[in-house]
Amino acid sequence: MNDVTSEPLPILPPRERDAHKGDFGRLIIVGGSRGMAGAPAMAGLAALRSGAGLLSIATPVSTQPLVAGFSPCFMTIPLVEDDYGLLDYANVVDMLAAREHFDVWALGPGLGQSEGVTELVAQLYRDVPRPMVVDADALNAMSHALQRNPQALAKPAGPRVLTPHPGEFARLTGVAPGGSLAERAQAVGELCRRDPSGQTVVILKGHQSLVGDGNRYAVNGTGNPGMATGGSGDCLTGVIAGLLGQKLSAWDAARLGMHLHGLAGDLAAKELGEVSLIASDLVGYLPAAFQAR
Ligand SMILES: NC(=O)C1=CN([C@@H]2O[C@H](COP(=O)(O)OP(=O)(O)OC[C@H]3O[C@@H](n4cnc5c(N)ncnc54)[C@H](O)[C@@H]3O)[C@@H](O)[C@H]2O)[C@@H](O)CC1
Ligand SMILES: Nc1ncnc2c1ncn2[C@@H]1O[C@H](COP(=O)(O)OP(=O)(O)O)[C@@H](O)[C@H]1O
Ligand SMILES: [Mg+2]
């Protein structure tokens, strides 16, 4: 199977002297819940370090101040929550009203699981006409949505990049973790083809992460087991969203995002001299990973 670099990786164009932040994407991350404020924050830091122009994080009211505290660059949007700090149905209308305002959406990091989350995610997935990264609890929400409506992944209003780890992939597809590269590629292709409009790209994460779009496949050659730590996947979500904001296609943003994310992990491991690292180290090495090698 080809490496993600077999097909030339996209090069981000030089920035015009008169560039402004609107040129590099207005991103929104929908994530966070009580006890999981870090996930959307790590995704947000990774998105900004990947070049995003503007970033808002929509998160339940009780989590909003915690998320905002991670970076002065974060703008935050409060979401109505239920008694457990999880999203309420009430958010669906407001968030759908925002569907034209943001250039790129990323759903799921730390979002938690509830009826309100499933309802919100399923409608945003279907109706937002912009590129969207779907990760973590948004993938779990789509697993629940598929039980009610087997067409929940079909014909979204815009390009989708799904980023399941093997556990989330198993919930979405029933395909257990493990299997050969070819078996995993086949299962990824089948998941992509649940969307006959051909707008869905899937990254199956872990050792030998692979990306597919239903016709093409590629395996990622960067990364290391030091990245097997909470928050690494949240970072990848932010990197891909940041690249989508700079007008890369879903396929190219996925390939370049995987490559750079793993490269940052390799730089961090090398610098720290140890395989195990924490996700905040990984975020710190993203700018270095973006330097032309
Ligand atoms: N600091 C934070 O706020 C963090 C929040 N997180 C959030 O926590 C929520 C739950 O996500 P988690 O992924 O932690 O929990 P999940 O329960 O969704 O997945 C963990 C399970 O998936 C399976 N799995 C994962 N990777 C695998 C692999 N490579 N091979 C085989 N099995 C594998 C294992 O059974 C593992 O126990 C998400 O919303 C996520 O964004 C996590 O990202 C961790 C950090
Ligand atoms: N052994 C490994 N080798 C290379 N990359 C890994 C390894 N383990 C995990 N990763 C990477 O780290 C990230 C883990 O994602 P995920 O499990 O969603 O983390 P979290 O949800 O805790 O942020 C993925 O991008 C995965 O490819
Ligand atoms: Mg994850």
From TrEMBL:
Which residues are recorded as binding (6S)-NADPHX?
39, 110, 165, 234
This one is known as ADP-dependent (S)-NAD(P)H-hydrate dehydratase
Q: Which keywords does the record carry? A: ATP-binding, Isomerase, Lyase, NAD, NADP, Nucleotide-binding
Please indicate which superkingdom the organism of origin belongs to. Bacteria
Assigned EC number:
4.2.1.136
Reactions catalysed: (6S)-NADHX + ADP = AMP + phosphate + NADH + H(+); (6S)-NADPHX + ADP = AMP + phosphate + NADPH + H(+)
* UniProt domain YjeF C-terminal: residue ranges: 4-293
Which organism's genome codes for this protein?
Answer: Lacipirellula parvula
Residues involved in AMP binding: 205-209, 233
The Swiss-Prot or TrEMBL record describes its family as follows:
Belongs to the NnrD/CARKD family.
Function summary: Catalyzes the dehydration of the S-form of NAD(P)HX at the expense of ADP, which is converted to AMP. Together with NAD(P)HX epimerase, which catalyzes the epimerization of the S- and R-forms, the enzyme allows the repair of both epimers of NAD(P)HX, a damaged form of NAD(P)H that is a result of enzymatic or heat-dependent hydration.
Q: Does the keyword Transferase apply?
A: no
Question: Which GO molecular-function terms appear in the entry?
Answer: ADP-dependent NAD(P)H-hydrate dehydratase activity; ATP binding; NAD(P)HX epimerase activity
> Gene3D superfamilies attached here?
3.40.1190.20
Tell me its cofactors: Mg(2+)
* Signal peptide per UniProt: none
Is Lyase set as a keyword in this record?
Answer: yes
Annotated GO biological processes are: metabolite repair; nicotinamide nucleotide metabolic process
Binding partners and assembly: Homotetramer.
